[in-house]
Amino acid sequence: MTGRAGPPVALTIAGSDSGAGAGIQADLKAMSALGVLATTAVTAVTAQNTAEVVAVHPVPAELVDAQIAAVLADLPVAATKTGLLVSAATIDVVGRRAAAGQLPSLVVDPVMVASTGRTLLDEEGLEAYRRRLLPHALLVTPNLVEAALLAGTEPGRAADPEAMAELGRRVADLGPAWVLVKGGHLPGVHEGGRHAARRVVDVLVHEGRADVLEADLVVTVNNHGTGCTLSAATAALLASGDDVPTAVTGARRFVHRALAGAAGWHLGRGHGPLDPFGWSHPR
Ligand SMILES: Nc1ncnc2c1ncn2[C@@H]1O[C@H](COP(=O)(O)OP(=O)(O)OP(=O)(O)O)[C@@H](O)[C@H]1O
Ligand SMILES: [Mg+2]
């Protein structure tokens, strides 16, 4: 992949996770594992581990913008992803860069709700996503709760593929070319108990058409950063020249292997990290 001109370059605009399972650290790992040089704009510093988020300190929006500008001024960024954007002001600066055509192949992972259920964004931030950022996204990757919030419908309802497709179409009405509604956090999915689903379903929507993408459930508590890893891997594959469906398919396979590889790990008291480098799958 590394030609004479160097590897493809991607940019992640996201928060730091001190436990390194999610956020900028997950993005760096996923992009690196896929042979893509990851550049970064940090939006917040969080103190967290596998079990809890202890503190979140936002980086001023102007400093987020300065990081983006410094990277863009010097490096050939071919794809971008956003993760935690903390505030309407931060969403605004990213939206302005996107509107100016400076963020190619923009993947927006609209992080709004922590796995604990805690809301990470206020109403103004939600509106900023809807009006200022999503219209410029190539792909947006909400989980079910985030898709419902963006679509303005009741959140938290368990969904079947048809309902997910309908949600995806409503999010697509906000302007992104493609929408991937993720079903990894369906009720029961991670418990692995008698009633747990055996399959996980994501739905990819484009121009009204919906493709149901299924995978075998990986039964594990080590699922910290699946969403970050998925969007980072997608941006990396877009930077490498894949089209959207190919990148999404490759990224889902990448997440699946990373989940399966770490399924037997015992790291931390809570939701442990993934295995993006395939350490558990020696060739
Ligand atoms: N246990 C699992 N087994 C197989 N695939 C999974 C599992 N959990 C999540 N996935 C997949 O991982 C990707 C991320 O989906 P998920 O719904 O977990 O996103 P998310 O809610 O944004 O995650 P995060 O909590 O990291 O923000 C999707 O492609 C989903 O299908
Ligand atoms: Mg997420």
Could you please describe the fold and organization of this structure?
There is one protein chain. With 283 residues, the protein is α/β, with parallel strands linked by helices. It has a single domain (9-262), classed as UDP-N-acetylmuramoyl-L-alanine:D-glutamate ligase, CATH 3.40.1190.20. Helix content is 35%, strand content 20%. It contains eight helices and nine strands. A nine-stranded mixed beta sheet has the order 3-2-1-4-5-6-7-8-9, with helices on both faces. Helix 2 (61-72) packs parallel to helix 3, helix 3 (88-99) packs parallel to helix 4 and helix 7 packs across helix 8. The longest helix has 19 residues, at 244-262. The chain is globular and about 45 Å long. The two termini are 19 Å apart. The mean pLDDT is 92. Adenosine-5'-triphosphate binds next to strand 8, helix 7 and helix 8.
What's the topology here?
Blueprint: E1 9-17, H1 23-33, E2 37-48, E3 53-58, H2 61-72, E4 77-82, H3 88-99, E5 106-108, H4 123-133, E6 139-140, H5 144-151, H6 161-172, E7 178-181, E8 199-206, E9 209-216, H7 226-239, H8 244-262
Parallel strand pairs: 1-2, 1-4, 4-5, 5-6, 6-7
Antiparallel strand pairs: 2-3, 7-8, 8-9
Helix pairs in contact: 1-7, 2-3, 3-4, 5-6, 7-8
This protein binds adenosine-5'-triphosphate and magnesium ion.
* Overall structural domain count: 1
Basic shape: globular
What is the helix tally?
8
Largest sheet: 9 strands, mixed
Q: What level of helicity do the residues show? A: 25-40%
**Distance between the amino and carboxyl termini:** 19 Å
The secondary-structure element order is: EHEEHEHEHEHHEEEHH
Indicate the CATH class. Answer: Alpha Beta
